[in-house]
Design brief:
113 residues, Four Helix Bundle (Hemerythrin (Met), subunit A), 4 helices, single chain, binds zinc ion
């Protein structure tokens, strides 16, 4: 892929992430007056849902950081090189994960730690 295509892809992914994060990070009070303690069951399921949203939000923040890092790497001319060991990231991996900033080995090492 050409750099311009990668950049367009990353910017689209970035916009998508921001939109989805904006959707779930809105305070509960904005979504029609959810009342805690009305019924215990309701409050619990809302709390669980909220936790799931927080987890999803954090995951998207991580993805966003990778996208931002990839955009910087494009500017630096290091796109496609692993941030940890400097090896080339396989083209196949970049096709699946355009925002990959580490090779498979280092990405797994980071995920495991
Ligand atoms: Zn590496």
């Amino acid at each position: 892929m050409r750099d311009d295509d990668v950049r367009a892809l990353l910017l689209a992914k970035r916009a998508d992430l921001l939109e989805r994060m904006a959707g779930i990070s809105a305070p509960p009070t904005d979504s029609g007056g959810i009342s805690f303690g009305k019924r215990v069951g309701d409050g619990t399921s809302i709390a669980v849902e909220r936790l799931t949203q927080v987890a999803a939000h954090e995951q998207m923040l991580t993805q966003l950081a990778d996208v931002d890092r990839s955009l910087i790497k494009l500017d630096e001319g290091t796109y496609g090189c692993c941030d940890v060991c400097g090896d080339d990231i396989p083209a196949g991996r970049l096709e699946v994960h355009p925002s990959a900033t580490r090779c498979v080995k280092d990405a797994e090492a980071t995920a495991a730690s």
